[in-house]
Amino acid sequence: SRHTATQRPRCPNFEHEAPVKCGPFSLTSWPMAPKAARVVGKRPAGGMCKHPAKRSKTGCVNVLSQFLECALEKLSKPQLDRLCQHLQDKFTVSSACTGSGMAEVVHAELTRMLKLPSEVAFSCEKVKSKREFYMSVVSPHLSVHGCMFDDMTSLPDLVAQCSVHGHACRVPTGTSLHVCGFSCKDLSKLNNNWTPAQKATVLQKQLGSSDKTFAALTNFANKAKPKIMILENVDELEDKGEPNPNLDFLYEVMSAVGYSMGQKTLVSMNFGLPQGRKRVYFVCIHNESFGLNPSRGQALVER
To answer: SS3 breakdown of the chain: % helix, strand, coil, rounded to 5?
Structure first.
């Protein structure tokens, strides 16, 4: 059913979340730094404890590890065991237009902490300089990396031009997690190309690159069916309890292609980044992949 501004789920806690306190940050501790330069704390004898909460707090690998460790410590032992059981089957990640490869870096660090195999099915960046950065800086730190596709809008064809192999390759489907930052250009408050009325209906009226990439995302999701997707865009898509045609349309289309979706607004500087960007993140679950009906899927996303 169509979600409205009053029906959409809202997280009761995130508006008042305190910023997470990060430890010292340096280039040498960053995951993408050369391995010889990384500051790695001494691990307890026997490797990682089965429950992260019982691990030694001395010598965190890096800021990213601190955030992941905090997240894992919120899980009970049965939840953690179930997580590892699911991920051991085949935990594959794909991304489109993330700009920096951070989704892949987080994936690699998470699987390292859980002592699970890591596999990046594919990435996609249209801008040549971003592809070059990714391939030279990010990719060497990933144990398995597939294709680097050139254009997000070609992904729904399930065959796309690949920079790694120099020809068109098959686009992997059914990945565990797909991370995508579809274009914010025509949705942003900084864009003056459209009137306020036009900007409010960019997605429905198929205006500019924002609609083009959104259509590519939803068509890809409909065909490739990633089990979980994390989407990111500007805070014009934030649920503020007011009419928001673009947001309503986003929920409607994602529901039509089989996903339950919820959202959360985060500010970059609360996560150790030197900027104050406010962005909306959408978590989407493919109901059929988990044997869920839409109402059960929506309840899971809200929780």
So the answer is: 40, 15, 40
Question: What is the rounded distance in angstroms from the CA atom of residue 29 to the CA atom of residue 218?
Answer: 37
Q: Are 180 and 97 in contact (CB under 8 A)?
A: yes
pLDDT digits (tens, 9 = 90+) for 116-169: 887 899 999 999 998 988 888 888 878 788 899 999 999 999 999 999 999 999
Please choose, from the candidates 259, 253, 201, the residue with its C-alpha nearest in 3D space to the C-alpha of residue 230.
Answer: 259
Q: How far are the Cα atoms of 133, 163, 266, 267 from residue 279, in angstroms, in the given order?
A: 23, 30, 6, 6
Q: Which two tokens stand for residue 279?
A: 């962005």
- Please count the other Cβ atoms lying within 10 Å of the Cβ belonging to residue 266: 15
DSSP letter string over 2-28?
A: ---TTTS---SSGGGPPPPPP----GG
